[in-house]
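Practice problem: predict the structure.
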Amino acid sequence: MLEPDQNQIYDLSAVAPGVFIRTGVIADGSCFFHAYLRVFRPTYKRANVAERTRIVGQLRRVLASSVSETSLNSELYLLLFITELQKVLAQQDVSTDPHVKVLTKLVNLNTIVDDCSSFTGNLYTEFVDKVNAAGRKAAGDEADLYDEKMNSFVAQWARGIFHQVNQIVIRDFKQRLLTDYVGCTEMEYISRALKCNFLFVKDHQIYPFQVTGYLEWPYLILIWVSKMHFELVGRLDPDRVIQRKFNSQDPLVRAFFPSK
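Answer:
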């Protein structure tokens, strides 16, 4: 890893023509944000380490405060929701509620969740319908175990579970944006929130993982270093200025999309 603001020639001749520069950023667990801000926030570049850390914290808080069920991408939200729903349902086995005891005895709830995981409609309705259908089938001759009152209970119980899971998903994703190392899941959200495309190189080659939204958004190219750190890539222009923000028509960006 390079020291913050340290520049070094970086060979990308296998990707695109030009002289490319690698630039180090602060390695404090927020390197992704440090890299972004060094390019897009002029005051960041002029700031000292303490002030840069404060600016990063401010950006993290802004991003975290923007998280809601609607601001999360639907596919991402469903993935997070299903994962957390399975955890919460696994805890139902120790419930003292007699209705829940009957329900968990008759129905494998996580199997129901698996069956619903690719459903594109109303997940709550689909889940309740499948639970009730499975419960009635399992009750068989003992239909009194699963009567209309049980159907009504399941609807109410599931509503509470879904509300709980939603709160956990939003809370946990906010916390990840506030404090965690930025991984693939967070990058997609950050890209849309900041209206910025992110491309990656590793070992002087294009890295297949990309986070892109719209062609009109600027492109930032990052080096993935040591599996836990990001640094910046810029191109040294003839006037000796390092360009670190690119557009969709730039030869370097186009090298990432050879089929387009």
